[in-house]
Amino acid sequence: MLDLEYQVVTFIMFIVPLYVLAFLLYVVRVLKGPTISDTVLALDSLLYDVAAFTAILALFFKSPILAPISIIIALWAYATDIYVAKYLESREMGD
Questions:
Q1: What is residue 33's DSSP assignment?
Q2: What are the two backbone dihedrals, phi and then psi, of residue 69, each rounded to the nearest 5 degrees?
């Protein structure tokens, strides 16, 4: 069992810098996105990565409270997609 925990910790220590780099790149794209579509895509990617990262942290810390939080973040990203799609559709129709 100890060997498995060591492998999980090693994996997480390898993944964390990659997630941090991805988060920084997504934030840059959200702030500098030339179009609203680029901004929404970067925000979606950021939120889904945060949800996945929270799920990984839930496994790492053996915390059952973090799993529903990752689900809530993913649902929030989905709701953001729906909201922006409705906004763009109404703007296209001229309402």
A1: -
A2: -65, -40
**Per-residue confidence at 1, pLDDT binned at 50, 70, 90?**
low
Model-wide pTM > 0.70: yes
Show the tokens assigned to 38.
């680029």
Query: What b-and-e string marks burial along 33-56, b requiring 16 or more CB atoms within 10 Å of the CB?
Result: eeeeeebbbbbbbbbbbbbebbbb
User: 21: which 2 tokens?
Assistant: 């780099």
Residues 6+ apart with CB under 8 A from 2: none
**Phi, then psi, of 62 in degrees rounded to 5:** 55, 45
pLDDT at position 15 over 80: yes
What ranges do the domains of the chain cover?
A: 2-93
Indicate the average pLDDT of the chain. 89
